[in-house]
Amino acid sequence: MTKTNRLTILVFIAIVLAFAVGIAINKGASKEFVASFAPNIKLLGTIFIRMVQMIISPLIFCTLVVGIAKLGDLKVIGRVGGKAMLWFFSASLISLLLGMVLVNNLQPGKYIDLSHADTNGLKDLATKTQEFSLKSFVEHVVPDSIVHAMSENAILQIVVFSVFFGVAAASFGEYAKPVIKALDICSHVVLKMVEYVMNLAPLGVFGTLCAVIAEKGIDIFKFYAVYFFSFLLGIFLLWVILSAAGYILLKGRMTGLFRRISSPLLVAFTTTSSESVFPTLTEQLELFGCQNKIVAFTLPLGYSFNLDGSMMYMTFASVAIAQAYHIHFDTGTELTMLMVLMLTSKGIAGVSRASLVVVLATCSMFKIPPEGVALILPIDHFCDMLRTSTNVLGNAIATAVVSKWEKALGPEAKDVSTI
Fold it and tell me: Shortest CA distance to 225 belongs to which of 385, 357, 314, 106?
């Protein structure tokens, strides 16, 4: 049994145990016990996420700088970056449009009862809407200190600094090779740390899921059936579109890609954190055959610019809330909303509950009662599971396709690791 398959099996076992323990506590324990149990068991997930987050900044910096420097020619950097951004913005536009078409046809907002809204956390979200002014957006993209950006895991800021550093290093040619070699060694050391941390993934999955189920139980799916399954349909269609594009461009290699990223997809789905699988996804894409320099350059950009699942959710949720308040938008207004979301969604990966923050900001901008965000808070965790795994899928396919375009997609490595 390979290490990848072993981890997948252990994660599945963790999911089953989390459901069993969570439901038992939700049904049989007192409210006081649940209130103390859920935050404590969730610490297992918190520990796992934080251990991965401590690796993200050095890994992105090292791999991106090395990737750019290895590309060598600045014209190659521009070409690869241009191809990546073409894919990212095309996929984002399709995702936004899909969410808008579905929500207008299925109209899930008409089935949501305002009297059942869960307002927990709404006030905290409301305080964050100011982050999406033009001034704050620029401040969020351009770092004033790389040390501060790394301490905050501000991925987009780290990407910006790393791109400048990598381009500058590439311009020095042979003179900068010792620095690039050192960073290359550092990236391999960090990846070894990742191997250790990922052994804790089943515990993190168990703690995260068990806490949510113990608090909310499974009745939440009954009340929000129309909304949730409408979004689920949207995610399914988005997966079909992304997979179809992958099969067309990668042909027979797409099956191998799915096999390689199955474990990262599952971990992202259960932890609702795409950051938690960034290191593993990097490794699996390289084993799939993508050249290190392409992965190191494209994947970090994708984490900032290619959030396909989150994109679809933002238009879906914003219009659904408007429907709940019987607010009708004409086509022009909805297209304007789409373009606003296209802008405000960039560089939000490091913001807690980022999609909801953008939805709340959009509601305020288009005169939708922001209190309506409380409608979707109770099931946001489950929707986040779907959109996070979709983000990972989109970035994996994007990286593989850019590698193919650059003729940098080699044969898949054989995984001979066993237990």
Answer: 106
